[in-house]
Amino acid sequence: MDATTVLASVSGSIATVGYGLAAIGPAIGVGIVVGKTIEGVARQPELAGRLQVLMWIGIAFTEALAFIGIATAFIFGY
């Protein structure tokens, strides 16, 4: 068994591995957004409502990266 045979057998799951790696970025991003919102509410509780709205918008934009990652996996993987 040579290197090209091994590469050919692994290439079927490259899209799955790629999406798994692409999901790490949005997960870290959501953690940062939520953490910073909690810090902001702790500093100024009267802004909790506005910060929560901004947090949900930030989470939506961050999760859009995950959707782009899964779409890319389907486009280039199959």
TrEMBL record:
It is found in: Cell membrane; Membrane. Residues 15-76 form the V-ATPase proteolipid subunit C-like domain. InterPro entries: ATP_synth_csu_bac/chlpt, ATP_synth_F0_csu, ATP_synth_F0_csu_DDCD_BS, ATP_synth_F0_csu_sf, ATPase_proteolipid_c-like_dom, F/V-ATP_Csub_sf. It is a multi-pass membrane protein. The chain crosses the membrane at residues 6-33, 53-76. Keywords: ATP synthesis, Cell membrane, CF(0), Hydrogen ion transport, Ion transport, Lipid-binding, Membrane, Transmembrane, Transmembrane helix, Transport. The record marks E63 as: Reversibly protonated during proton transport. Pfam families: ATP-synt_C. Its main location: membrane. PROSITE patterns: ATPASE_C. The keyword Ligase does not apply. Belongs to the ATPase C chain family. Key component of the F(0) channel; it plays a direct role in translocation across the membrane. A homomeric c-ring of between 10-14 subunits forms the central stalk rotor element with the F(1) delta and epsilon subunits. HAMAP family: ATP_synth_c_bact. This is ATP synthase subunit c. The lineage of its organism: Bacteria, Bacillati, Actinomycetota, Actinomycetes, Micrococcales. The gene is atpE.
